[in-house]
Structures are given as C-alpha cells and as structure tokens.
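cron nightly-structures :: item 1 of 1
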Amino acid sequence: MIVKKDITKVQELVYEMNVGQIMVKDVITVSPENLMSDLRDLLRDKRISGVPVVENNRLVGMVSIEDFIKCLAEGKMNSPIRDRMSCNVDTLYDNEPLVQAVEKLDRLGYGRFPVIDRESSELVGIITKGDIIQGLLRKIEIDYHEEEIHRYRASHFFEDIVADKTTLIFQYSVIGKDFNRAGETSSGLKKTLRRMGISPKVIRRVAIATYEAEMNIVAFTEKGEITAKVTPQEIRIEVVDTGPGIPDVKKAMEPGFSTAPDWIRELGFGAGMGLPNIQKCADVMNLESAVDKGTRLEITVNLNKKSNHGSGNDN
C-alpha cells in the first residue's frame, strides 16, 4: 500500500488554467533598431531585467540586463539592439497548459517567458513566476466563493434518486492532435462533478488524472473516448484509444520517460509525467496496451472518507 499526500488546490489549478489566463498582456518591447543606450532608463524605470525585441508584431529576440552591462563595459552603447540581442528565444503559447509553463520555468531556470499566439505567431504577452503566483491566488479566491455558494453534499444528490443501484455515466470524445481544444474534457468533467457537490479534494484528483489521460490521447493518437462512471462509492474513469499502443508499460511509468516526437515537445507537451501523475491521483489504476491496437486505462477514485489514497496497481 502506498499512501500519498492529497492533491492541493494549487496543483489542481496549474492543470486547469492556461498561460493566457495568467500572462501580462501589456508587454514592454523594443525594436531591433533601437540603440542599447535606450535600455538604460527603460530597465531602471520599469524595474525589469529583460525586454522582448519585436519587429512587425513578431518576436525576433530578447535583450537582457546582462546584455546591457556587457555592452556598457565594452563602451558600445550606440550599438543597435539587433547586434546584441539573443535570437534563440524560448517561448510559451498562450493556450498552453499552465503546468507546462511551471515545468519549463523550473527546468530552464528562466525568470520570464514571452508568450506567442499559436496561430498568428505574434507576441501577445509575457509571464513570470510572480505572475503565476498572483494569478493562482486570484483564482483560488474566486473558486472559494463559488464553492461556498454551490456547496451541496454528494450523498444528498444520490439520495434524491430512487433506485437500488445508481450509476451516472458521462462520455466524452477526444480528437487527436487538436491542441486548441486539449483539456476541454477534463475541465467539463470537473465542472459537472463540482455541480454534483463532490468533495473538492476528490475533484482535484479526478481532474488531474483525466487531464493527463486526455493529453496522452491528443498527443499520441487520432482519437479516443473518456467515460466517467459515478456511483455513491466511487468515480471510475475509463480511457480507450486506438492509437499506437505502449511497447513497454513498465518503462512508460517512469517519471520523465516519453516517446513524444520533437514536434510534440515543441508544442509544450510530452514531458513524460502523464502516467506517473495519474497513478499518484488514483486509488486504483489499471493499464492495458497492445502495440498497433491501442490502450485502455482505468482510473478509480473512491468517494468514501476512509479511502487509502494511492493504493492501487498498474499492469
């Protein structure tokens, strides 16, 4: 038996929200034709350590306070920013899940990321660790008030239904490679469970597990189905796809292991934490997969208070 900590509200929101909901839209930028000397007052007055370089609404580089200091030491303050900026800039997409932004900030150690519109490739914002913290705090406050208004015990919901056995079934179709709609299923299921009055702690676990399963369908398959079966005792999530299958299930369960191609990673997905995160959230997890035939994943989260969170098996 493995006992694990409850999923926190912050962890839940990091999966639920996207970069566009957190980023600062009023971005301070400079032109590549500006001089390095133009940065002196800008960096000081705005108290920033880096500025995106934009040409025709497109991000072409970043210039930092380190670039400014180096240029000052060399006595070349009349150099155009184009000659001193960094051209290879790591960015985020506005509709990218916030969890990917947090992972990228932590992994690369940067203080900020320019945010790009996925379709137009134009610069639409900038995001920092501070922006993420403030955005999460605002969302927590809003959600707290909503939960208080709509609080309704799940047991009462089922007591209102006259039957020997009751199972509510919610089915969702997930389209592969449609990253613009990625996350809609987990978000929709979360809203449904919240309206039923399911415990917020349970909803967090279900939402994160469903999100990870949904992203695996989007990233690796053409389509799949997610079915949630809710009874007074448990929530069971069944995830089925006809994708390429998993050659080595045991290896796939290792944190950080991923078979995602480069273009998937470029989109901000495929970090290799999907199945391990699902297992952390589930009371019971069963995974069956066959190469070239598809994968079937079953996730069970108990509703009773005596649930031993995290005890389960993975085949």
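cron nightly-structures :: done
The domain at 19-133 is CATH 3.10.580.10 (CBS-domain).
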